[in-house]
Amino acid sequence: MILAGDIGGTKINLALFECIGPGRVGHPIDPESHKSTGFGSFEELIESYRGRHAGAVDAISFGVAGVVIQGRAKGTHIPWEIDASAASRRLRGTPVHLMNDLVAAGYAVPALAAPDLVSIQEGTPAPEANAGLISAGTGLGESILARVAGDLIPIDSEGGHADFAPRTDDEIELFRFMRARYGRVSYERVLSGQGLVDTARWTHERDDRGGASAWKAHAAETPAEDLAALVSERALAGACRWCGAALDIFVSVYGAEAGNLALLGMTRAGIYLGGGIAPKILPALQGERFLQAFRDKDPHAELMRRIPVSVIRNQQASVLGAARYATLEACGPPTPSL
Prior knowledge:
The protein is an alpha/beta fold and 338 residues long. The chain has helices at residues 42-52, 84-90, 101-108, 169-182, 187-190, 193-205, 211-221, 227-236, 241-265, 277-280, 282-285, 288-295, 301-306, 317-330, and strands at 2-7, 11-17, 19-21, 24-25, 29-35, 59-64, 66-69, 72-75, 81-83, 96-100, 117-121, 131-136, 140-148, 151-154, 270-274, 309-312.
């Protein structure tokens, strides 16, 4: 049995999985979800879960939203530092595998079924080529899924922290607003829950026809952690023009950066939009704005039209991927194809 999970900046998902074979696991057993602030350490999280769900565990495998180097993870949005070897010793010698959360999600991609995906652009998939994964949520994660001997192998990346490159006059103004607020502006500053909130603040406050007072009302009536959801909901409902303008910019930047990733990795097998935000703003992503920005890569516009783009709506993808990764250790060497 494998205990797998995903530690994000906002929440933690975890579950048990039966190891069926290399790259193959059963359905999740005893899944749980918790706020990331609910535990003081990784070991405390595991011991709490095991206290409710006893039984033999052959491996513990987790994706972590942060940098993972040689079995040590430092969260970007949580204060934890996790050492796989030290955690294994405390957890009675059970092997502990740590990986970036986008690497974990990348390992899930080959196992996703049709109901787990929503197509944004059908394209013409190239089964022999690389794929790409870009996920906006509490932060922004990116990974190229390299095609190696028929398998898709996710590559560690902190591409979400690369410099934001504005493309339009509005985006240049937004960049200046963000730079004044934060100093350096990365793509994550725009393509994240807080990024959507900051963009909405800017669209409200730059409009002298009641926008600033409307934003003050939103901020006063809504907990800070719920502001991103409020902006997207009001935008999709057509209830607030300033929220609508913010979501339009968010979707356009998302499309442009997804296109950048596609070019960087020549991801002709497909681009996948993961994370918690994409499924919630699906109607906006299915409009023209996302694909227009994605395809606007002259002289390679035609290439971009051929790249499939899909939204992952399975919110347990990183947990599934972490479990699948562990099977390569717990169940034996990898087979020729995942």
